[in-house]
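Fill in residues.
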């Protein structure tokens, strides 16, 4: 959708989403490989990322919709 609207920060947004996926993948691997209890750490990361991304980063999308 953003590519169709020629969003100027599209590559930055793609990078942020790839970073998000890498972090979640790493957390999951740590839990599986080392049987670590990371649920609190994962939830904190998810909450912070979603809050920041949704309420700050995604706000500039409005003008392209």
């Amino acid at each position: 959708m953003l590519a169709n609207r020629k969003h100027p920060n599209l590559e930055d947004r793609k990078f942020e989403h790839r970073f998000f996926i890498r972090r979640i993948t790493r957390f999951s691997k740590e839990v599986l490989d080392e049987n670590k209890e990371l649920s609190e750490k994962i939830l904190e990361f998810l909450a912070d990322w979603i809050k920041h991304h949704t309420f700050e980063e995604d706000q500039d999308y409005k003008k392209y919709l």
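The first helix runs from residue 10 to 34.
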